[in-house]
Fold this sequence. Notes:
This protein is an all-alpha fold. Helices cover 49% and strands 0% of the residues. The longest helix has 19 residues, at 51-69.
Amino acid sequence: MDNTMLIQLTNEKAIGLLHELEELRLIKVLKENIAPAKATLSEKYKGILSKEQGQNLNEHIQQMRSEWNNI
Length: 71
């Protein structure tokens, strides 16, 4: 039997219960303290701007930086 489930504990007492179930060989704890994967900013915003819009934005940023350097 290969039924795998992902669960989120809402009470710390559940950890002890899970370990007891594991000792009884009713379940197997595969991993503990798994943080949800967070998308990087580049992954989050990938494809939002077209290539042309991205190039225009980069040109505008370079222009603004050069203006700040001239002050």
